[in-house]
Amino acid sequence: MVTHAHGDHLRWGCAHYLVAEPGGGVTRARLGAAAHRVETAPYGQARTVNGVRVSFHPAGHILGSAQVRVEHGGEVWVVSGDYKTDPDPTCAPWEPVRCHTFVTESTFGLPLYRWPPAATVFGEINAWWRANAAQGLTSFLYAYALGKAQRLLAGVDPSIGPILLHGAAESMTAAYREAGVPLPATRPGTAERGRHAGALVIAPPSVDDSTWARRFGPSAAAFASGWMLVRGARRRRGVAQGFVLSDHVDWPQLLAAVDATGAERVWVTHGFSDVVVRWLTERGLDARAIPTRWEGDEAEGAGEGTPPPADSAQEAAPADA
Fold first, then answer.
1. Span 43-60, mean pLDDT?
2. Model pTM?
3. Rounded to whole angstroms, how far apart are CA atoms 195 and 121?
């Protein structure tokens, strides 16, 4: 059972894959030749596997992302995968699922991570794009190809200018459209050469300063990620502009999600797990950290789940501690 199609959760080599129904298209697109091994199940539909009752429930992370509810012998566990509680028009919203044990990510599990409203962020992105267009610049907005790119498409103002997609984002966007997610018109980033003054180009961070990117002529670059809240992360990315937009829960959302499950035990993984465990333990919950086998990166089709170098967090922590 796969929570979602990012590369640090969906791995090649399995004989069978079971995913939430809305995520079937993106999962098959990621697996390529192994797509025939994918089976889907609607959210909330339970089935029994080896005597264990299992079901998928919306996680709000990307299209088709799911929490996995596992029930056996009167005990209920929920594995959250990656999740967010912010509204997102490109996927089903996160739903709290009552359980005895909740396994939560902690990608941004530090008190300093608190997201601004998405409407505010998109207002900033549109203003940045509009100002660049007025100067005859191409606007490069770097974002992960699956999930973040489509969320950006759904939130930007397409009246400002044409929108071009890097091939990695284009293939995932096609799967979103096939799933019925409404998105503005786009053009392939490879369709034309030369200047694209006024255009917005959405591409993965790995192409920054590449030959492909340079052919667009004079440009301005920005990166959309929760890590952009920290100045050091912006410097390491080498972009002048960062927009704080994440597909993971921030600190208060994570704590609220734990409360909403009613869980007595909380297992914490994938991020700043020790900090979250300490906080939950001090408040009377039975909490423990569990290791994650692989963090991943955007080059492998993962999301923004890889923490930056430790000094990024340490640099920002004192101001919010």
1. 97
2. 0.90
3. 27
